Amino acid sequence: MSNVPSVFSVEKILLTALIASVASTIVLLFLRRRSSAIPMSELFILGVMVGFSIFAWRMAGNIGQLNDDPIPPFSPNDLLCPIVTYVLLGIYAAFRRPTDLAQWEKTRAWLTAVSFVVNVLFI
């Protein structure tokens, strides 16, 4: 039996979301150095969106069945949360209409990967 709790506190979920926001912003800064397709004003917005997607999904799915790890170290929530991030970023892009679609898709993929890694490592 694992020592990891099946249900996480709001503080733990919020900390995970904040870590994801910071990590996303760092990744975006690195990506921006390679291509200026991401306006500086959007770095903060996208970082917050990643954090929000994690916070919203983890709060909504904070039940033992979704947090238990049937295949350690991955829980269903670890695998579902990046999908929520990917969809939320897709909704954002539908209204934003990125000029460089190929670069946007790479950015979206990187932010989805950050969401996955943070979910596995920090919660």
Q: What integer value in Å does the Rg equal?
A: 15 Å
Strand content: under 5%
What is the strand tally? 0
Largest sheet: none
What percent of residues adopt helix (DSSP H or I)?
over 70%
| Structural class by secondary-structure content | mainly alpha
Average pLDDT taken over every residue? 91
Weakly predicted, low-confidence segments: none
Number of domains: 1
The 3D shape can be described as elongated
Q: Give the ordered list of helices and strands.
A: HHHHH
Distance N to C terminus: 17 Å
Number of helices: 5
Architecture overview:
This protein has 123 residues and is mainly α. The protein has one domain (10-122). Helices cover 76% and strands 0% of the residues. The protein has 5 helices and no strands. The chain has helices at 10-34, 40-60, 64-67, 76-96, 101-122. Helix 4 (76-96) runs antiparallel to helix 5. The two termini are 17 Å apart. The relative contact order is 0.19. The model has no long low-confidence stretch (mean pLDDT 91).
Offer a concise description of the structure.
With about 120 residues, the chain is mostly helical. The chain contains five helices and no strands.
List the helices and strands and how they pair.
Blueprint: H1 10-34, H2 40-60, H3 64-67, H4 76-96, H5 101-122
Key attributes of the depicted protein:
123 residues; mainly alpha; 5 helices; 0% strand
